[in-house]
Write a structure and sequence with these properties.
5 helices; 291 residues; five-stranded antiparallel sheet; 15% helix; alpha+beta; single chain
Length: 291
């Protein structure tokens, strides 16, 4: 949250049963046109969006009006229709959206998160390696290509959320979102192809593995005005706390560079960062992005 001086104080807490390693922290302050909202695409790039509206109608895999979350009964129905492999069945949500006119690029905003289905499947897979797993994990962590290989494997297995746009009575895939995690909903911006001027209806299909994704909401807007470059700030103070113990200062040099020095946090621990104030451009709104 913003403090009285105009700066920001941020708390990063470890709530899941895992260990966090934080190597660098910085705050990006984006001053943008009033009325625009900023969202991140699947590569972490900032996308300005204006006038985002929800769908006029949402239908499920069976053509029935519905919400977004996948249901267990749909899993059974999909399994009955074909095969045991992940690629043989998908759940879909068909969105009927008011189009964006005037040759402006539409942007779909997806509020999504994963269930623990993917994480549990990954853990079951890794347990097959037995006693050699720690050595394997250390080797993969030191290999810069591991992240790319893992992303490719997840996408090949069908874990991604597929976005397709209707064109001439057929759907064309325009984006596939990699898993975003289970900790909480994330808003992901997905730019879509610009519709023809005579378009009166836009239909978008979301396709996903049963029980792997929860879609909390969808909106469609137009790409807004480019906000330019952000002001980037490093924390001026950092304090950590373990459980109910006292807070202790954390050396700022640990968080200023991606140099391998990191702050480690376990369950019940948190880190508080204090960022200095920065003047806002006249007549501009501001969005803060923590990296």
């Amino acid at each position: 949250g913003a403090d009285p001086e105009g700066g920001y104080r941020v708390r990063i807490a470890t709530e899941l049963p895992e260990t966090r390693h934080l190597d660098r922290a910085r705050l990006e302050l984006w001053d943008h046109a009033p009325g625009d909202e900023l969202a991140l695409d699947d590569r972490g790039r900032v996308v300005p969006v204006r006038g985002a509206r929800p769908p006029r109608e949402v239908t499920d895999s069976h053509g029935q009006a519905t919400g977004f979350a996948a249901r267990a009964d749909e899993l059974a129905a999909a399994t009955d229709r074909g095969g045991s492999s992940f690629g043989s069945y998908r759940l879909t949500r068909l969105l009927d959206l008011a189009p964006v006119f005037g040759g402006v690029e539409p942007v779909l905003l997806l509020d999504v998160q994963n269930t623990d289905f993917i994480q549990d499947a990954y853990h079951r897979y890794m347990r097959r390696f037995g006693p050699g797993l720690p050595k394997l994990m250390r080797w993969m962590s030191d290999d810069s290509s591991y992240g790319l290989a893992l992303a490719w494997l997840l996408q090949s297995a069908g874990f991604g959320l597929e976005v397709a746009v209707e064109e001439r009575a057929a759907f064309r895939v325009v984006a596939t979102l990699a898993p975003v995690g289970i900790a909480g909903p994330k808003t992901v911006a997905v730019p879509l192809p610009t519709p023809r001027p005579d378009t009166t209806r836009m239909r978008v299909r979301l396709s996903m593995l049963p029980e792997a994704w929860t879609v909390h909401g969808v909106r469609l807007g137009a790409r807004g005005t480019s906000p330019g470059e952000p002001q980037v700030g490093a924390p001026r103070a950092a304090r950590g706390r373990r459980g109910v113990g006292p807070s202790v200062d954390v050396p700022l040099a640990t968080l200023r560079e991606e140099d391998g020095r990191h702050v480690q946090g376990g369950v019940g621990e948190h880190l508080e960062l204090d960022f200095p104030p920065s003047p806002r451009g006249p007549g501009r709104s501001r969005t803060a992005v923590l990296r």
